[in-house]
Amino acid sequence: TAIDSYQKMAQITGPTAELSSYISTIHHFESQQFLRLGQDPSASIDAGLAEIASCIAPPEPDPYCIDIQARLLSAKSAWKTKQRISDFRTIAHAYQLSRQVLSKIGDEPDALLSSGEIALQLVQATQPLGKSQRTTLQEGIASIDKALVASPGWPRALVVKGALLLERSKLERSLVQKRASLSAARDALAAG
What we know:
Helix content: over 70%
Order of helices and strands: HHHHHHHHH
Strand content: under 5%
Structural class: mainly alpha
Number of helices: 9
Largest sheet: none
Shape: globular
Distance between the termini: 31 Å
């Protein structure tokens, strides 16, 4: 497997934050597949978190490792949501980490997309919507817009943007703003 290959490289070159983040990214992809199949992704998530434990530790936590930590925590929260278990703390922590990452690698398209996806997940976990969710939505939309500048027409980013705009429309006070958000959401979803 890819994980075995990366682990063999680590045996030769020694462990690095870069290799750990790659291995953890594979665990994240596995967890996403398990989630799509409705199967428990906990083993993949735990393996990914264990792999990056050394590169997220102070004094110099690696931003790419923190990014994958946020994604793994997001997957953990998604699984709990599927199990009808409220887990606001985990998704809130994932979002905080994703924002921290952007302060270090704010031009990285994957980190921008990830932050937007986690913002969406956080907003959807917070019902009813309120003032703090408006800020989260705006930050998520800004992250996705920046990802789309780097990768124009990115289907996944467009879909996430559409979903964020749809959530924002629920918070709009005026009918004009609500219609504008809904129209922008429809356009983004159609383009994605």
